[in-house]
Write a structure and sequence with these properties.
With 234 residues, this protein is α+β, with helices and mostly antiparallel strands. The chain is built from 8 helices and 8 strands. Helices cover 45% and strands 30% of the residues.
């Protein structure tokens, strides 16, 4: 009967791993700043588990089947005073001599210098630049795995110079005008002085299994393999 228990444990681990990979993780955040008062509420939910964090009370709550099982509040708590250990007194000359002997024994400066020279050599720079394109493509694909279900941003901003505020407002209008998005994003300039207030609400979902295709494409790219192999051999 032991083998049945082992098989059951293995199947449970496999099912749990599959669930982790295919079930989306949801992030929901509400943030605002007004009159130098900052509020942040963050919630992360996955299947039957939910974690909430509130900045105002510095509170962390964990829910299981919508029932709170953990409630941590650090506001008002004073950390216990730890005993300060007196540092051990060592002879500076003896300690310095040991360090110098270690450096001389293993030729650390010369090895580090030679390694640096090889890394910045013209041939190796070519290997490093060969990674720029694939890494930029990978980062773009990784961003695309994140899905914004709901995004609302209302920002009031101002700079020291009203003309700079106007230039920034023109830039934001141009960017938002060229972007076709179903989300509500608004930037309101304030020419009276420097300020930054906002009211934001966002709901994002992320499915872990979606990161595997771009990572596999990146790791199997011939240019990436050649570049990494060249850097390792330098």
């Amino acid at each position: 009967m032991v083998w049945l228990l082992v098989v059951g444990i293995i199947l449970f681990i496999i099912l749990l791993a599959v669930a982790v990979l295919i079930i989306p993780i949801k992030f929901h955040t509400v943030s605002s700043k007004s009159n130098e008062i900052l509020h942040i509420n963050l919630a992360i939910s996955w299947l039957i588990l939910k974690i909430k964090y509130t900045l105002k009370d510095n509170q962390i709550e964990i829910f299981f089947f919508n029932r709170r099982i953990v409630d941590l509040i650090s506001k008002g708590k004073t950390p216990e005073k730890k005993k300060i250990k007196e540092p051990k007194v060592t002879k500076p000359a003896a300690k310095k001599s040991r360090i110098n002997s270690f450096i001389k024994k293993y030729h650390i400066p010369s090895r580090a210098l030679n390694k640096t020279k090889r890394l910045v050599s013209p041939d190796n720079i070519g290997h490093i630049t060969g990674l720029v394109g694939p890494m930029r493509k990978l980062s773009g694909e990784m961003v695309n795995t994140i899905e914004f279900r709901h995004l609302k941003i209302d920002t009031i901003y101002g700079l020291d110079d009203p003309s700079h505020t106007g230039i920034t407002a023109g830039f934001f209008y141009a960017v938002l005008g060229s972007c076709k998005t179903r989300h509500q994003i608004r930037f309101t300039p304030d020419f009276t002085g420097p300020m930054l207030d906002w009211d934001m609400m966002a709901q994002v979902t992320f499915t872990p299994i979606k990161i595997f295709p771009p990572v596999i494409r990146f790791s199997t790219n011939r240019q990436v393999i050649r570049s990494i192999w060249g850097i390792i051999r330098c």
